[in-house]
Amino acid sequence: MDAINPSAELTEPDRIDRLRLIRSDNVGPRTFRSLVEHFGTARAALERLPDLARRGGAARSGRICSVEDAKAELAASRKFGIAWRAPGEHGYPARLATLDDAPPLLAVRGDTKSLMRPMIAIVGSRNASGAGLKFAGVLARELGEAGFIVISGLARGVDQAAHRASVESGTVAVLAGGHDCIYPPEHGDLLAAILDRAGAAISEMPLGHEPRARDFPRRNRLISGASLGVVVVEAAHRSGSLITARMAAEQGREVFAVPGSPLDPRAAGTNDLIKQGATLVTEAADIINAVQPIMERPLMRPMSEPDSEPFESDPQNQDRNQITGLLGPAPISIDDLVRMSGASPAIVRMVLLELELAGRLERHGGGLVSLL
To answer: Is the Cα torsion angle 179, 184, 186, 192 positive or negative in sign?
Structure first.
């Protein structure tokens, strides 16, 4: 892992190129990172997209975001008070930048200083009990008084209680849709209060993007990724809050859980988290004491993938066919693909990149991939 150092501000052409690349078909955050790492710049990667997609088996290349569309999105964002920030720029949460699927650009609105302070996420049931709502508020207020920013997803229930209790000290709302598509709609006043004081809102989605079901887990990775740790106040089995807790663990963040009655299904998930090793929380001091040592460590960014040969080496059809033949609907690790195919890591990654840009590959957590 490499230590994170703040980078210089992007030039406007660089910002346009980054926005064009992430808005192009079949380019997600991980693919963006691979493309830029291996081709040097977003502009160079944009030039390679059609050829890579063709080699991956696409009948025709996917849509590439135009310069005009990118400029129009940036102009509309500015009118809305949004700044698009890249990892390393002021206003981009430093811990979020350490993720291998960190957003290449983040739409930021509000007080950017709050985004540079240490954050604790508080999440939980949308249908929370009165006791759960009250305790979420107590935790949020005390964490704010201790100098932490509370980050959550602006949802009903625990999220709302945590935001409202920390408005004065600073809180960050992570949106699943665009900044103009607040969900739920009745929390528009809460978001306005957050922005009017010492808080901020962030999203990776463009203006006009209405949140869909699959956007909420994507949002949840930002909540956990930007934080030192995630506190789950109440959560039933198979709830979104448990997804956030799982993501936090995968990202190396601390996971905290508030215990509840075994008779209340809203506490089933949090009680299970404690059984699985989450830190039990009965007061804010439990969280503060656990994260203090973490705050003293330097932040590290993910290592670039080592290449045993230049990434731009073109795979031979034999290698391409062999690697594709090993793929199927069941996820398989990239390390296993390298071992089974006998091809170099660089060749395997190039073939996977071609398939992804052709819309034929799905990436899963933990370095797993599958064929669509």
So the answer is: negative
Q: What is the pTM of this model?
A: 0.92
Residue 267 in contact with residue 242, Cβ under 8 Å? no
Q: What does 86-149 look like in DSSP terms, one character per residue?
A: -TTSTTS-TTGGGSTT--SSEEEEE-GGGGGS-EEEEE--TT--HHHHHHHHHHHHHHHHTTPE
Residues 6 or more apart from 250 whose CB is under 8 A from it? Answer: 365, 366
315 pLDDT above the threshold of 70: yes
Residues 6 or more apart in contact with residue 193 via CB below 8 angstroms? 164, 167
Cis peptide before 184 (omega within 30 of 0): yes
Residue 143, pLDDT > 70, answer yes
Neighbouring CB atoms inside 10 A of 279's CB total 17
Q: What is the pLDDT of residues 319-355, one digit of tens each?
A: 999 999 999 999 999 999 999 999 999 899 999 999 9
Render the burial of 18-47: b for 16+ CB within 10 Å, e for the rest. bbbbbbbebbebebbbbbbebbeebbebbe
Q: What's the rounded Cα separation, in Å, for the pair 272 and 245? A: 11
The answer to whether 183 and 215 have CB atoms below 8 angstroms apart is no
Any idea how long the chain is?
372
| Cα distances (angstroms) measured from residue 326 to each of 11, 73, 320 | 42, 40, 10
CA 281 to chain centre: 25
Distance from C-alpha of 154 to C-alpha of 158, rounded to nearest angstrom: 9
| 131 Cα distance to chain centroid | 30
Q: For the purposes of burial, counting CB atoms within 10 Å of the CB of 355, is it exposed (0-12), middle (13-18) or buried (19 or more)? A: buried
DSSP 212-267: -TTHHHHHHHHHHHTSSEEEE----TT-HHHHHHHHHHHTT-EEEE----TT-GGG
Alpha carbons 287 and 279: distance in angstroms, whole number: 8
**Residue type (1 letter), 263:** L
Write the pLDDT tens digit of every residue in 104-122: 999 999 999 999 999 999 9
Q: Are 171 and 140 in contact (CB under 8 A)?
A: yes
